[in-house]
Amino acid sequence: MSLTDLKRRKKKSPRDSISVDDFIEDANNYAFGQQSAVSRNKKKLKQAQLNGLDKHSTKIFKHATFSLTEDAIIVLDDLATQSKIAKSRLLRILIHDFFDKCDTEKRQIISNSED
Question: Which residue among 19, 25, 54, 83 is the one 20 to 30 A from 107 at the CA level?
């Protein structure tokens, strides 16, 4: 069972139409191993949009798929309900906490785990 309820879905933006000449030019660029003109324009547009944002307040999250046991899912649900924190944020906190532990503590946690 995957944690699909943790998935943050983006709204699909409509694709910009490009001319036939741009399409052919991109095909030629692809054949010669060069960057496409269309993706360069999209990157410039995206960069212009990001320049207006405060990068310290905007975090970019990446989708991840992993498996958990039923028991782990129940515990995660209980923790999220009790702490009133989203499951994805709770997992990020737990990962960060584990990362900050010394190697001895990490080994002890891993040896005591039931999985």
Answer: 83
Confirm whether 14 is domain-assigned. no
What are the tokens at 29? 């660029």
| Residue 15 counted as domain residue | no
Overall pTM > 0.70: no
- Write out residues in the chain with pLDDT < 70, as ranges: 1-15, 37-59, 115
Question: 3, 87 in Cβ contact below 8 A?
Answer: yes
45 lies in the same domain as 69: no
CA pair distance 46, 62, nearest whole angstrom: 17
Give percent of the chain with pLDDT exceeding 90.
Answer: 26
Instruction: Give the CA distances from residue 103 to residues 81, 94, 106, in Å, rounded to whole numbers and listed in that order.
Output: 31, 16, 5
75 in the same domain as 96: yes
